[in-house]
Each structure stands twice: as structure tokens, then as C-alpha cells.
Design goal:
nine-stranded mixed sheet; 14 strands; alpha/beta; 14 helices; Rossmann fold; globular; 2 domains; five-stranded parallel sheet
């Protein structure tokens, strides 16, 4: 299914659903009424076609929530956006159909640039050359890391290869960490890449008194809770939930009352309660870009024990009761046991102040302006005299 904002609400050919211009909320399909087609954002903002294969809906309110949060924040800053949402999980053929949709929108004259969230969506943008493109890489589109899946190396290699092609065509690539930037093969694209993490809502992720949070969740104060958070309720293999269970079993040899609470596919307003009530966050992923769950936990001063993925080591450096370890159940359990026995929170909220939604959105808006200045808004670089070089 494709969801393309920009017209009257209704159904279109090829399984597409049209929702209104500039309505990230409407595209989510979560009982939020979209804006009327005549409504517009402030005229001074760039007009952006957002192409993504991750976006929340009524069936999965957490999937791609970071994309919705970021586009909503950009909207508040005056950025005018249309959403092209590709449901690749339902059918891979939707990516093929989306190529025509992107080309059509590029010819429409309604957009100044394309912003693709995920390298595979960036690949869809290379079949048009009218608009400059920004591609945000999220993790598995540059990092090998599919786990316990049939043909995982082949699938991972294909996605990464298509993402690398997209980087070569993009004006600017956005990555989550220095390690991800180093993986970009194109020398020009690597040099131009910007590191921008997903912004988090520091107003939403704000520490709540532990006793109050536990009372609201119906938890007793005596419980020893190891928290495992995932946006996808299907618990994809790359998150390695089986390793988390193994860590718990090892932990319970020393602390029998320890328990693993898995929170998957929950809305963000509930996550804050879990982060405030739990004793430690456990991340066992095989690969990550810059995991949102770690920043959200740190915003709530929740200790974190994680495998060494993405930029987690950098985020946790010198924070009390936070650490990384090898993807080994015994080693991870040893770290979890230390945190549970200490009974203390961490002091980490200051570490994520620079990752607020407003700050990251202003950085992205500046990237848009830089791209448009560089290309004259038509996908081609400008010469020194300001004319288009073709």
C-alpha cells in the first residue's frame, strides 16, 4: 500500500490512499482528521516530498514514530511536506509502484526537494532528476546486521547496495553516527554527509518519580525490572530478543526475582512510564544506527546495558550505571546484575539535551536550505555565476 499526501482523501489506483497536503497526522491514519486541501503551511518554508517506508498507523502506533515526530517538528518550523509512505512489509512490489509515484510528484511542480527516510527509499528517488534529494540512513541500510533470517546476508547486502547507489545520487546524506558515515563508499557523498540523530521530545520523555510510575503501571516497588523496548511488536530478529531472554536467565541465577518486561509497539506517552519505573534498559541488537530507545531512556535517567552497536558506546561514556558489553549472555548479565544490585538510577538527562526534536529539526531545515542554495532548487549544481550546470 502506498499512502501519498497531497490530494483529496480517498482511494486511488494501485492500492494508494491519498490524504491531504501537509498533514503528517492525517497520513498516520490514527483517527486524526487531515487538514483540508486548501490549507498551507507558512509560505517561507521549503516544500518537501517525504518518502518513507516507516510510519505509524492504527495497527502499529510505534513503527516509524521517529519519522512522524521529525516531520511534525519540521512542520511547526514552517516546512511544507507531502508524505509518500511505501508499505514494503505488505509487498515488495510496492517499491516498484512507488518509483512511478515519485516521478509523478517530481514533475508536479509542488516540491522543492525530496527527503527519503531509509536508503531503500532514497533509491526510489534516483529515477527522477528534477528535484535534489536528501537521504536519511537509519542503520540497517548501511550496517550489516540482519540476524536469524533466511537469506539474511543476501537481503542485507541488497538493501545496503541500493542505499549506496542512493548516496551517490543524493545531494546530502544524513547518517546517525561517524561509523555509519565511514561506511558510505562514495568519497563525495561521505565528505558531504551530515550526522543528525533522530530528535526526541524532551517534554514527553521526562523523568517521573519511580514510585508514582510503578503505581500507575500496577508494579510493586520490590520488583527488579529489566526493560526491553522495541517499536515493532513482531520483535525483528536484528533486535535479538532470544539473547535478552538468555541474559535474564543468567541474571536470575544471582537475582532470582529479576524479570524481563518486553514493551513492543507501545505509544510514546506510555514509554515514559516504563522508562521511569524500570531498573535498567537492556539492548541486545545485532546492529543499530543510533537507537532512539537509548536516548529516551537516558532522558529519563534510566541505566542502560547494551551491546556495542551504533553510537551507544559514545552515548554511555562516563555515565554512572551505564555500560556496553559483547553480545554474550554471561557478560551482559554481569552488567545487569551490577545495576540491579546498586539500586540506583543514572544521571544522564544532560547527555541528550542536544538531541531534542527542535534542535535536530532546525539542523535538517538548514540542510534543506543548503541543498537548495547549492542546486538552485532543481537538482542540478549551480555554477559560480548562479546558472545551472547540466
Amino acid at each position: 500500500m502506498l499512502q501519498l499526501s497531497g490530494g483529496q482523501e480517498g482511494d486511488s489506483a494501485g492500492g494508494s490512499r491519498i490524504v491531504s497536503w501537509h498533514s503528517a497526522a492525517g497520513a498516520a491514519g490514527m483517527n486524526e482528521k487531515p487538514n483540508s486541501p486548501t490549507e498551507r503551511a507558512p509560505a517561507d518554508g521549503p516544500r518537501v516530498l517525504v518518502v518513507t517506508n516507516m510510519y505509524p498507523d492504527r495497527h502499529n502506533v510505534a513503527f516509524g514514530k521517529f519519522v512522524k515526530s521529525q516531520t511534525d517538528a519540521l512542520e511547526r518550523l514552517g516546512c511544507r511536506q507531502q508524505l509518500l509512505i511505501v508499505d514494503g512489509r505488505r509487498s515488495k512490489w510496492n517499491y516498484v509502484k512507488a518509483i512511478a509515484a515519485v516521478r509523478k510528484e517530481a514533475r508536479s511542480g509542488r516540491h522543492d526537494l525530496i527527503h527519503a527516510y531509509y536508503g531503500l527509499c532514497g533509491f526510489l528517488g534516483i529515477f527522477q532528476r528534477r528535484l535534489p534529494m536528501v537521504v536519511t540512513y537509519c542503520g540497517s541500510d548501511l550496517n550489516p546486521g540482519f540476524a536469524n533470517v533466511d537469506k539474511a546476508p543476501l537481503l542485507s547486502g541488497l538493501i545496503i547496495a541500493l542505499g549506496q547507489v542512493a548516496a551517490g545520487f543524493a545531494e546530502i546524506s544524513i547518517v546517525r553516527s561517524n561509523a555509519m558515515r565511514a561506511r558510505i563508499l562514495s568519497r563525495r557523498a561521505r565528505a558531504d554527509a551530515s550526522i543528525v540523530t533522530s530528535g526526541i521530545d524532551l517534554g514527553l520523555f521526562d523523568p517521573i518519580d519511580r514510585a508514582e510510575a510503578r503505581a500507575r503501571l500496577g508494579w510493586g516497588l520490590e520488583r527488579k525490572v529489566v526493560l526491553f523496548v522495541c517499536a515493532d511488536p513482531r520483535l525483528p530478529a536484528v533486535k535479538r530478543p532470544e539473547l535478552a531472554h538468555a541474559v535474564l536467565e543468567t541474571t536470575r541465577r544471582e537475582i532470582p526475582e529479576a524479570e524481563l518486561v518486553i514493551v513492543a509497539g507501545k505509544p510514546q506517552d506510555l514509554l515514559n512510564l516504563y522508562y521511569s519505573a524500570a531498573d535498567v534498559l537492556l539492548l541486545t541488537s545485532a546492529a543499530e544506527g543510533s537507537p532512539n530507545v537509548v536516548r529516551e531512556a537516558l532522558a529519563c535517567n534510566l541505566p542502560v546495558v547494551s551491546t556495542k552497536v551504533g553510537d551507544v558506546e559514545e552515548m554511555l561514556t562516563d555515565l554512572p550505571n551505564c555500560c556496553t558489553a559483547a553480545p554474550d549472555a554471561a557478560e551482559l548479565a554481569g552488567r545487569v546484575i551490577q545495576v540491579l544490585r546498586s539500586g540506583k538510577r543514572t544521571t544522564s538527562r544532560h547527555r541528550v539535551q542536544t538531541h531534542s526534536l527542535e534542535r535536530t529539526s532546525r539542523t535538517i531545515l538548514e540542510i534543506y536550505r543548503r541543498v537548495l542554495e547549492r542546486t538552485g532548487g532543481n537538482g542540478h549544481p549551480l555554477s559560480e555565476t548562479g546558472t545551472t550546470v547540466r
